[in-house]
Design a protein that fits this description.
Length: 236
């Protein structure tokens, strides 16, 4: 595999935004390491799939190892895997708490450590988190404490990473979506979800994909939390 081909790791890559990110990066000529619990092998020699729980460090190690074995290096990591459980705060169970921390926090920590260690070898790299604009503006009727606890932490970690690794040639950014029209939202909920955005409608998965592609092509941008949320973070 050419050492000049750009290579990206995408977590939560089996469907929704993750699946669209894989397609878009391939269209731009990237080699892709795609991971998710239920992901299946594909015929494309420029896509490596690794099935497993991204919160498990052993799985994260396998993702990076298989990516390096196939492509020789990693340029970009997109931490897309995440889960959202909307419950009143006092109704969250210990299992809910553990599940959200496992994917949203452990799933970021392990693979990001391992990916940056590879990026340091080339003095070049980019890490992108997918977070949520609920961190900035909570919405009545959308209970989201666990999302804010975890995704808010990722926004802060993004800025810390950007500063820590700026002189090492490694950038860190985040995309902070509003509510995106994806398989996780049933069609019958769309009208109510549209109304939660100042522009009057949900975003499309392509909006998030385009934001990630922009950040990956913007070498002077680091430490940025890019809101792609139909105005949610600006006000209501």
């Amino acid at each position: 595999m050419s050492n000049t081909q750009k290579v990206v790791v995408v977590t939560g890559a089996s469907q929704g935004i993750g699946g669209e990110l894989v397609k878009a990066f391939r269209e731009h000529g990237y080699g892709v390491i795609a991971t998710a619990r239920s992901i299946k092998p594909v015929d494309d020699p420029n896509v490596v799939t690794v099935a497993g729980d991204i919160g498990d460090r052993a799985v994260a190690k396998r993702v990076i190892a298989e990516g390096i074995a196939r492509f020789g290096h990693i340029d970009t990591l997109v931490n897309n895997a995440g889960i959202f459980i909307a419950k009143p705060f006092t109704q969250y169970t210990e299992e809910d708490y553990a599940a959200v921390l496992n994917v949203n926090m452990n799933g970021f920590f392990h693979i990001t450590q391992l990916a940056i260690a590879e990026m340091e070898k080339r003095s070049s790299g980019h890490v992108v988190q997918i977070t949520t604009s609920l961190v900035d503006h909570a919405v009545a009727g959308v209970p989201s404490v666990l999302a804010s606890l975890t995704k808010g932490g990722l926004n802060s970690a993004t800025k810390s990473l950007a500063i820590e690794y700026a002189k090492a040639g490694i950038r860190a950014n985040a995309v902070s979506p509003g509510i995106i029209k994806s398989p996780m939202h049933a069609v019958e909920t769309h009208a109510a979800l549209d109304a939660l955005h100042p522009v009057g409608h949900m975003g499309e998965m392509s909006d998030i994909v385009n934001a990630v592609l922009y950040l990956d092509s913007a070498p002077f941008v680091t430490g940025e939390i890019l809101h792609v949320d139909g105005g949610q973070s600006a006000g209501h």
